[in-house]
Specification:
- The protein is an all-alpha fold.
- The chain contains eight helices and three strands.
- It has a three-stranded antiparallel beta sheet with strand order 1-2-3.
- A hairpin with a 4-residue loop joins strand 2 and strand 3.
- Helix 3 packs antiparallel against helix 5 and helix 5 runs antiparallel to helix 7.
- The protein starts with a helix and ends with a helix.
Length: 341
Amino acid sequence: MTALDEITNGSLTLGQRLAEGPLPLPEALRYAMMLAEALRQIHDSGRTCGAVLPSNMAITDTGLELIVTPSRAATITPYTAPEVVQGHPPDFRGDIFAFGAIVYEMVTGRRAFAGGNADALAVSLTTSVPPPSGNLAIDHLVGNCLAKDPTGRCQRMQKVILELKLLTFAAHRAEAVTHHQGVTAAIRAETAHLEARLAALLQTHEKAIIDMQEASGDAISELRGRLSNVDSELASAKVRTALVEALCQRNTMHVEQVQQNIEAIEGSVTGVRDGIDFLSQSATELREYVGASIHEFERTQKSQSTAIASVVAGQSQTDDVVEGVVEAVDLLHTIMLDRTE
């Protein structure tokens, strides 16, 4: 794969872009300046491009990139110089001819030379002149590049670049003038609109002032009547104010009495709280005393239970002894009876 194939596969070529139509003049002039600078560098190095075609130019993020490929002298394109068509070897002036044809196509969107076949295209290249582009400065630049006689063309790309810079400056200036004229016209239209609005507002304000003057007399009379009513209402308000002050004084006295009652209640509450604390302490002491008494009672009851158990055991032994004595007495009595008999 060649470098041109890689660029074509990854980027849009100028030929593909021109198939969509003419370029805006600022964009066309920018691409023309980049192409002219690339050709100048090639010519300064002593070489000739010989294949200046839109399909050999890649549109990149930075602008336009010319891909130099080996020229095929036998192939006639719409950008081939007339002397090359007639069999002369291509030189730098042929590159300048192709440059002019490409600039014309970028501005107008149509080729400077065309034909249905190779012979018709050759005739067009050697005899016809492209129609005007509609821009005199562009026509002057392109005409200096598309002269049929190589000696009548611009002989160096430096001169083409100089004309391009002047053309770009003139285009920017014309664009600025057009923009300024548009802004001026817009400002004038806006000014006229504002003047009309101000006139309408002034008329409206004048009418409003007249209406206000007419209505002010009635308003003043009405205000005077209201002022009289206000005076009478003010007198009534003074009476109500005196009553309110008396009520406020009574409320103040009542509030003071309530505060005194609250203080007395707070004293009583403090006494009750102290009594509750005393009762709580007494109940604690009583609880401790009852607990100690119960413990002592349990201990005494346990001692008594032990003593009772000892007494019961002693009584059982006594009963056994008594029973033995009774048996001994009975035995002795029996023996004595026997002896008596």
